[in-house]
Amino acid sequence: MIQQAVGGVTQLVSVVSASILLVIVLWIGPFFETLPKCVLASIIVVALKGMLLQCTLLPRYWRLSRWDAIVWIVTFSVTCFVQISYGLAAGVGVSLLSIFVQGYKPYTCLLGIVPNTDLYLDIKRYKGTTSPVFEVMHKCDEVEKKEKKFLIFPTVHDAVLYTQVNVLSKDK
């Protein structure tokens, strides 16, 4: 994190940074053995301040993607209150569960036109769009790895008819 903060981007900078860290751990580290654990804990908390401040970004994560926010909350909570290895395992497990659950629910949205352009965007995600022009059903079966289909229907009635004819008839 310090290397990124000062603008280091090359591998040579990484070697120098790792060498300095090695010197500190090997030769200066024994001086820290006499310090009380509360002082060492405060040093660690100050060093991890940037990561702990990511908690303030949680509302933004929740607005962008609730599943990603849930994965973040579970991983952070288990890591802080249980153990790091269990936190990583819980994060991977919840992430796989979210991918599995999202694969069964197709993404649907209402599209509105962006003024003075030919772009149609989701009304809930993009505030600059006008009233809905098309109702769009975005069908994507991620779990079964089928091709993606983008279907545009002028009315809800057409979307229901398409679903009855094409989707429900294949299930029988």
From TrEMBL:
<keyword id="KW-0812">Transmembrane</keyword>
<dbReference type="Pfam" id="PF00916">
    <property type="entry name" value="Sulfate_transp"/>
</dbReference>
<keyword id="KW-0472">Membrane</keyword>
<feature type="transmembrane region" description="Helical">
    <location>
        <begin position="38"/>
        <end position="58"/>
    </location>
</feature>
<keyword id="KW-1133">Transmembrane helix</keyword>
<protein>
    <submittedName>
        <fullName>Solute carrier family 26 member 6-like</fullName>
    </submittedName>
</protein>
<dbReference type="InterPro" id="IPR011547">
    <property type="entry name" value="SLC26A/SulP_dom"/>
</dbReference>
<dbReference type="InterPro" id="IPR001902">
    <property type="entry name" value="SLC26A/SulP_fam"/>
</dbReference>
<feature type="transmembrane region" description="Helical">
    <location>
        <begin position="70"/>
        <end position="101"/>
    </location>
</feature>
<feature type="transmembrane region" description="Helical">
    <location>
        <begin position="12"/>
        <end position="32"/>
    </location>
</feature>
<dbReference type="GO" id="GO:0016020">
    <property type="term" value="C:membrane"/>
</dbReference>
<feature type="domain" description="SLC26A/SulP transporter">
    <location>
        <begin position="2"/>
        <end position="75"/>
    </location>
</feature>
<dbReference type="GO" id="GO:0055085">
    <property type="term" value="P:transmembrane transport"/>
</dbReference>
